[in-house]
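Sanity check

After download, print the first record. It should look like this:
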Amino acid sequence: MAYWRTIKLREVINFRKQFITINDAENYKLCRVQTKAKGVVLREVKLGTDIKTKSQQVCRTNDLIFAEMDARFGGYGIIPEELEGAVVSSHYFLYEIDQEKIDKQFLEYCLQMPWFQNQVVAKGSTNYAAIRPYQVLDYEIPYPSPSDQQQIISKIEAVHERIEQIQLLRIEQNNEIRSLLLKAFENTTKTCKWQELKVVAPITRRKVELRADELYNELGVRSFGKGLFTKPSFLGSSLSWQQPYWMKKGDLLFSNIKAWEGAVAEITEEYDGCVGSHRYITCEPYDNLVKTEFLLFYFLTQQGIDELNHASPGSADRNRTLNTKVLSKILVPTPSIKAQESFLELKQKLTSAQIYHQETIDELNGLLPSLLDKVFKGGLTGIDITERSGRSAITAEPEVQQETALNPAHDIFYIRAAVDAYILGYLKGDPHLHRTKMEKVTHLIEYHCQVNLQRNPVRDAAGPSDYSSRLKVENVAGKKGFYTTQTTIQQNGFKEISYTLLDSLSTNVEVAEEYFGDKIDEINIFLNLIKPLNTKQSEVVATLYGSWNDFLINGKQPTDNEIIQDVRNNWDIKKKRIPQPLWDWGLNWMRVNSIIPKGTGKLLLHKLKQA
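Expected structure tokens:
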């Protein structure tokens, strides 16, 4: 904000106070102003006779609206086109925006900033905590010129659109993962033996002998395969007729009134030793015949749900009790333990991305507020802050060339060390960010985001790599105090190189951001996408990207099969150990997240051919 002229809202908005009388025979749209500056939406449509207060204000498209009482909680926004003609009471204030002076989209971004909310809170801090119309006119905002507002809006909208696209594609990605799992399950079970549940996992009831002064931890199971949850603990003396039962790690648990809608779960270590009510049925699988997780997956397929529906007669919701005799006779697939373990290993690999996506979705959502904050601090990449006539102004920077220019003050190894530190800071908390994943992330930043890092990658066993230069980069990073490396010997005898980011970050972050230039937003989005992936998944994506990109450089648009055959046959023999579904997952992940090669950069050399 310090770089721009600051104005009061009264310079770009006009207070409007006009009322109409509600006609009892007409329908009216009523709007709801959401808190936290999340905009204005339709609340409901009401017949005039049902609206008690007959004197109402009419909203117009692009009006600025403030809620008298909720403004302190971010209850303000801009009226969207679909709410043209909606009515609000006198407890709302409406303002016309002079769009010749300010773009309504730019103003809407201002409304979302913490510094704007702080102004509202400061003037509504009494017990009544209401705002008045004149106070809104005195709120202050930064004021770039209209043309510069448009440039800022375009930049933000591009990032916003990309984020929304990624979020929508995650739904498709999750569906694809589920389809791949179902196909793999089908392949695992199509020729196996099917046996009655009572043969491989008989119902086992462990009655709790209650003690009056003992505290018991109770659990429950959610419908639709959403797992277990804890209920309030209770004293033995608090029960009268109820009979609880012990739960043991490895049990397969069914709700006997909600099993028909997927209330099935595995008792994990976290819930071992809890108790459940008489309405929960536990089956104890024989370890040499079937894995609990494998059985659970079956019962959450459509076929498994259908079987549980059949075993739960009745039409009324609460009366659909699971018949234990019918449950015991349900046929379940029992392939070899080795086949089950192979499937479950694949399942873990395919679903780990979904788990991490859920954990990092807030980070992805936080990109836009972060970008907004950057804009209002005058630090938006691609906008040059200059001084004119003693007053700050902004001007457009010349278009950046495709390849990032090298700052002559730093050599490429210093810059790459700074880039590493930037990645370590951005992906803080990623348990898989060791040397192998770091090299894959670096490769994709260079090739996909087109940041010139002057690497010479080869087709290595763990994917595209330039380990000789990586060692030099890590050496520079240690000397400059960016980060340190640690070596751990794994149980399989292999070395794992991890990193510790040092506290002093300002220099390397600035160096990396300067070098990234206007590609920084694309890089941040990419880092949010790659963070959930484990080491093997990162290897798969980078390898597929490298092969696909090589095809494009050579003028050929490959099929999926050609890409997979290339990585399995023209890299390293270890690539053949990676199961086909994981390669399929990788190509799908790349497409849904728009990580598509462009046919740029250098061809990857074969390791044996490297000089």
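If your output differs, re-run the checksum step. Summary of this record's structure: The longest helix spans residues 146-189.
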